[in-house]
Amino acid sequence: MTASYPGCTDALSDLHPQTRGQRLGATPLRWLLIACASLIGALGVLVMPATSLGATGDTWTSQTTPANNAWRSVTYGNGLFVAVAYSGTGNRVMTSPDGITWTTRTSAADNGWRSVTYGNGLFVAVADSGAGNRVMTSPDGITWTIRTSAVDNNWFSVAYGNGLFVAVAASGSGNRVMTSPDGITWTSRTSAADNAWLGVTYGNGLFVAVAETSAGNRVMTSPDGITWTIRTSAADNEWRSVTYGNGLFVAVSTSGANNQVMTSGTLIPPTPATPTATAGNTEATITVAPGSGSGGTATSYTVTVVGDSTKTCTVTVPSSACTITALTNGTSYTFTATATNAGGTSAASGASDAVTPIPTPPAPATPTAVAGNAEATITVAQGSGSGGTAASYTVTVVGDSTKTCTVTVPSSSCTITALTNGTSYTFTATATNAGGTSAASGASAAVTPIPTPPTPATPTAVAGNAEATITVAQGSGSGGTAASYT
User: Fold this and answer.
1) Which string of DSSP letters, residue by residue, matches 383-395?
2) Residues with Cβ < 8 Å from 3, sequence gap 6 or more?
3) Between the CA atoms of 284, 287, 293 and 297, what dihedral angle is there, to the nearest 10 degrees?
4) Residue 351: is its pLDDT beyond 60?
5) What is the DSSP string of 132-189?
6) Angle value at C-alpha 114, between 27 and 55, nearest 5 degrees
7) How many C-beta atoms lie closer than 10 Å to residue 309's C-beta?
8) pLDDT per residue over 91-118, tens digit each?
């Protein structure tokens, strides 16, 4: 196997020197997994064609590598895939514009290249071997230049974030971190502990590194890559790699019993549902709701005018709506929303239907009222002041806001019931449209509801020439006094 697959020969070198011996023969299955991982370097590159599968990761296709080296790390940047290897002679880099067709490149040195990343227009690789030259850089992935590492530690991983390259090592005394703003000049930093740090990443404003050794402290974090704090790992597994996405740091290990993944953080909420909007007078109120995709629970939503990112409002859960002001009446607007929690912010929703703010109508003209039996019918009309056109009017008894009626345009009157006969009433009106509600009108003239008169007494009639004269009188039942008889 060793002679046929050079990558497997390097399996032993994948282990930290301090722990390599104690693992020989102890866990054959793990050794097989590590050896098979190295064997990929001999068999080829495994890729998923995004153009045909939509980058689902479900179906994978083997691709031909230009050299059977022990390929350790791959990254993507500036339209190019770049991989680095632990073995090979002068060819420990390969590149591909599509992940399928690969070309061997001349490595800056035949070091044991462990990790490669891309940031700030530069590819940077780090190694666990070499004398003073355990970093190499390339602006294009093709031409590589050796750089002086801060110290000759066993550098296992490099990441870029917040304007800084950060590398971590499996060896060294209090200096298992080095940083560089440009990938060229490197500075030793004090690691939180002398653990075998094998993976580092950046996300959500934080550098996170994981280790395969020590007790209960196999994670360290730093907001700036310089000052590091030890953290309690979920389990004392041999943590190999860590990454960040969708609000979570996720680490994986080569040991453990059904617990070879640990996570930290909060899942970013899914993209919100398309919001709904209601226009007002130079404003709009937007209602949002959670999206149907997977993810965390939103703690707030940010609503933004499409085409004008300066116009926003925030919905704090459990509220579901907010209002954006200072809009222009007569202009059509649409809105999108993003969801946020401790993990981060989702993608933007689809745009709402368009709404158009309009001005509030003027106060109505003074209404007129006609009394009835325990009721009054009130007629209203648009006021003469400036403003929008009323869509409806609300009529209210002066002194009793519980007694109202509504006129929906194009109607012009409504009736308020349950009034007290014999009591005098006046009425005011307000006008409403999508822009809002006007001030109240002046009060109508007073009217007094009265009861209906009782049925008249039986009339008497006297016949004449083609006519009859009928005499009527007030009935004896309860009720008001008749003003006329028909």
Assistant:
1) -SSSS---SEEEE
2) none
3) 120
4) yes
5) S--EEEESSSSS-EEE--SS---EEEEEEETTEEEEEESS-SS--EEEESSSSS-EEE
6) 90
7) 8
8) 999 999 999 999 999 999 999 999 999 9
